[in-house]
Amino acid sequence: MNTIPLPRADDAHTAERCDAARNRRLLLDAATLLVGERGVDAVTMEAVAARAGVGKGTVFRRFGSRGGLMQALLDHTEREFQEAFMTGPPPLGPGADPVDRLIAFGRARIALVEVQGELLRAAEASSSNRFDVPARAVTHTHIEALLRAADVGGDLPLVAHSLMASLEATLVLHQWRNLGYTLDRLADNWSDLVRRVATPPTTDGRTVL
To answer: In which residue ranges does the UniProt entry place its DNA-binding region annotation (predicted)?
Structure first.
């Protein structure tokens, strides 16, 4: 007699995890479409649920709150950027001088604000602790590693935090939209800032660029 093998417990667990990952991706894709169509303020738990064709409770169970959703959406949209600076071509990716990589990183981050600045701003504002999120931790580790590779002196963890502050979406959007600085000017200023940080002072205390 032929028997039909029963699914093993670990197979069922794997299938459940795949379903959870697929549902998470469905919800994040729905949120991304809403941002593109109606702006970040349209991204509510109810709107995402309706767009994804699921109940509102599903969104709350997955993300907990709008802040959790926004942070997950930010992490979702940042993966390509992270792949670019971690494994992509130079100067943003490996293979270039660390100072050139750091300059390319900031320029790319500032350029990204033009595309998804409102999403970045909303994620920063809606998180209960926007300084303790995975995307920020990856950025901090990357900047600190480049500073160390460039033989920059000082308290590198704090130097990395200081550099990151000038790239925060809330500040860049304010400088661009409210103060009238162009994104190119902000990018050039980032390059100048990095070179000043990375260039040791002369014997008379001046920094030669």
So the answer is: 44-63
Distances (CA, A) of 168 to 97, 112, 158, 208: 24, 11, 16, 27
Question: How far is residue 8 from each of residues 11, 14, 54, 122, measured CA to CA in Å?
Answer: 5, 10, 29, 43
SS3 166: coil
Residue reference for tokens 């600085």: 181
Strand partners, 207: 201
Pick the CATH number of 12-64 from 1.20.59, 1.10.10, 3.40.1710, 1.10.760: 1.10.10
Nearest to 169 by CA among 134, 141, 128, 130: 130
174 contact partners, CB below 8 Å, separation of at least 6? none
Q: What are the CA-CA distances from residue 76 to residues 43, 79, 107, 112 (Å)? A: 15, 6, 21, 14
Please tell me whether the overall predicted TM-score, pTM, comes out greater than 0.90 for this model. no
Q: Name the CATH topology of 65-198.
A: Tetracycline Repressor; domain 2 (1.10.357)
**Residue range(s) occupied by CATH 1.10.10 in the chain:** 12-64
